[in-house]
Design goal:
- The protein contains twelve helices and two strands.
- It is an all-alpha fold and 275 residues long.
- It has one domain.
- Helix 1 crosses helix 8, helix 3 crosses helix 9 and helix 7 crosses helix 8.
Length: 275
């Protein structure tokens, strides 16, 4: 990495170290390393700061990112947008395969490696998703998921400027995600920044159709809605789409099973006989 590269690595390192420190403090002495650590509620001790950052990000999106994404979506043909999305998705496949391996998903790691090789060759550097047509579906794995599988708890919830919501553990993982992305090492630095910009704009453009749905579903407090949506998404990713039920569901099931069966012919809510 050249000396002229911007100072983003410093910020990434600081974010990551802060995430590691705060998440480690909540993890030590609470869960065996062999168990997936996942808190049932979002711990949001910095809510005033987070709400301020959330508002900042909303304004940044409203005045800069969304208009650029709309222009990109309007100008670019669908086939070009599809190719751009495939290209950036393919670049992170080695990271996905490594995290599969670190989580003990040996077979899935092999499939994701095969997906990368097929798309990087037959798929013309990943522009065409050939692997999907032969049954190698894309998977999403990152370092935050791996740290959860190793027993690291969520830690406090943060909303960072520009990069958005992250648990402390996932903030730590974000640094590793950034370092394991080939775009980080493209020279000259201006080309690296340009590629990051295209990736961000393309990703934002793909989510434009969701804006109205989110606004309608969020109700009076969009901050809480996004926070809980983030929590649910991370749960699904960590558990590969099959998260365990929260303990209060289990308690309710146990309470219901402990109730004595009603006597035959009786009812908890007897109906008044017809006159």
């Amino acid at each position: 990495m050249s000396a002229s590269r911007p100072a983003l690595p410093v910020f990434v390192l600081l974010f990551s170290l802060m995430g590691f420190a705060t998440s480690a403090c909540t993890t030590l002495g609470t869960a065996p390393a062999s168990e997936v650590a996942l808190d049932e509620e979002t711990w949001d001790p910095f809510e005033p700061f987070n709400r301020a950052m959330f508002s900042f990000n909303e304004k940044l999106d409203q005045w800069l990112l969304k208009p650029v994404a709309r222009g990109y979506d309007w100008v670019m043909p669908e086939v070009v947008k599809q190719g751009v999305g495939n290209f950036f998705s393919n670049l992170v496949q080695p990271r996905v395969a490594v995290n599969d391996l670190l989580q003990g998903k040996i077979v899935q790691s092999g499939r994701d490696t095969g997906r990368f090789l097929v798309n990087s060759t037959v798929g013309i550097l990943g522009l065409v998703d050939v692997a999907k047509s032969v049954g190698l579906e894309p998977k999403e794995e990152d370092w935050g998921q791996t740290f959860a599988a190793w027993g690291m708890h969520d830690g406090p919830y943060f909303v960072w400027p520009i990069i958005g919501p992250r648990y402390a553990r996932d903030t730590f993982g974000f640094g590793f995600d950034w370092l394991s992305n080939p775009v980080t090492y493209v020279e000259p630095p201006a080309a690296s920044w340009g590629l990051w910009g295209v990736d961000i704009v393309d990703t934002r453009a793909r989510f434009l159709p969701s804006d109205k749905v989110i606004e309608q579903a969020a109700g009076d407090d969009k901050y809480v809605f996004i926070r809980e949506a983030y929590r649910q998404r991370r749960r699904n990713l960590i558990y590969d789409g099959n998260p365990p039920k929260p303990s209060f569901f289990e308690d309710e099931t146990e309470n219901n099973s402990a109730k004595p069966a009603p006597v035959s012919g009786s009812s908890d809510n007897p109906q008044r006989p017809s006159p």
